[in-house]
Design brief:
The protein is mostly beta strands and 233 residues long. Helix content is 0%, strand content 49%. Strands 3, 4, 6, 7 and 8 form a 5-stranded antiparallel β-sheet that branches. It has a 5-stranded mixed β-sheet with strand order 11-17-16-13-14, with no helix packed on it. Strands 10-9-12-15 form a 4-stranded antiparallel β-sheet, with no helix packed on it.
């Protein structure tokens, strides 16, 4: 099994059938030929590996070291992914999300493959404790319940407390725009965090694969707050 997966590492574990106290792990990108991967000898189970590449599928194998020159056969293959789940709705009403505007981002899109667009290379900047104004335009012709999530602790999911940062409902007007202000916790870690925006005419989750929905990913870069905050409305 692979647990505690991050953008650059994972904790690998297995069930030991004998009395071994050391093991050899071989791992590399998915589909690699055994004997060509990276290997390491460990004395703990689970064992941490690092230096991995973000958003990459990996395979790994494990064998027991029973003594000098004496090893078990390889067990595996185990697999894991160093990235976020991919939302993959099977269908969408109209064109789904057609524009997201926040900070310097003004991204106009159409219907996307898998009704999901990864625009994480687009970065919106906001200070700790501030708010990030955002507008989301849809062209669906149906009422869509919308969500936005931010992975504040960078653990590759959006399920922790405080990571659902917006909920709203768009009318059936086509097109229609939702305007909101994303709150940024005063203790939000500095640096870049993945944002996911999504919704459908049925309730959705951040990894939704059902019907009639649309999703897009962006990045929020949290910086220290300004010395003097601007006046609010």
């Amino acid at each position: 099994a692979a647990t505690n997966v991050t953008a650059s590492g994972a904790s690998l574990s297995w069930t030991e059938n004998g009395t071994s106290t050391s093991w050899q792990i071989e791992y590399d990108t998915a589909g690699f030929t055994q004997g060509t991967g990276m290997t390491t000898v460990v004395t703990s189970n689970p064992a941490a590996i690092s230096g991995l590449t973000f958003e990459t599928n990996y395979d790994f194998y494990v064998r027991a070291i029973c003594g000098a020159g004496d090893t078990s056969v390889w067990s595996g293959v185990g697999s894991f992914y160093t990235g976020y789940c991919t939302a993959n709705p099977s269908s969408v009403d109209g064109s789904g999300i057609t524009n997201v505007t926040m900070d310097t981002i003004n991204n106009t899109t159409g219907t996307e493959p898998g009704n999901y667009g990864n625009y994480s290379s687009m970065v919106a900047v906001v200070g700790q404790g501030g708010t990030l104004p955002i507008s989301i335009t849809l062209a669906t012709g149906y009422t869509y319940d919308m969500w936005a999530w931010v992975d504040w602790n960078d653990d590759l999911d959006f399920s922790d407390a405080g990571e659902t940062v917006y909920t709203g409902t768009s009318p059936a007007t086509n097109p229609t725009t939702l305007n909101a202000a994303i709150p940024v916790p005063a203790n939000a870690p500095l640096g870049q965090h993945r944002m996911r925006i999504g919704g459908g005419d049925n309730p959705v989750t951040e990894c939704y694969t059902g019907s009639y929905a649309s999703f897009e990913d962006y990045t929020v870069n949290v910086i220290p707050p300004p010395a003097c905050l601007p006046i609010s409305n």
